[in-house]
Amino acid sequence: MSTMDRDLAKHVASVTIRAISQLGELVPLLKEHCDAAEYEPYLKAIATVSAVASTEMLNKVFSSHPDIEREFEAKISKYGRVI
Predict the structure, then answer these.
(1) 27 C-beta neighbours (distance < 10 Å), count
(2) What residues have CB less than 8 Å from 53, skipping those under 6 apart?
(3) What percent of the chain stands above pLDDT 90?
(4) Can you give the pTM of this predicted structure?
């Protein structure tokens, strides 16, 4: 199996992190405007999608390109997010 090109891997990781972050932003909005019965399935779906994206995409990119993971961790440490 070949390793994904570093530039493409970095882009995949960036898009994945943004998608997970945007889904996470829904949680307080849904909690505020939905009753518990409606909110819980959305919360579970967001958690599931985020976990799968992390496991199936980020972990694969980072295992092939540990330098990208270190770069992202440094940005999160400095800025509180990947920028």
Answers:
(1) 14
(2) 16, 19, 20
(3) 92
(4) 0.86
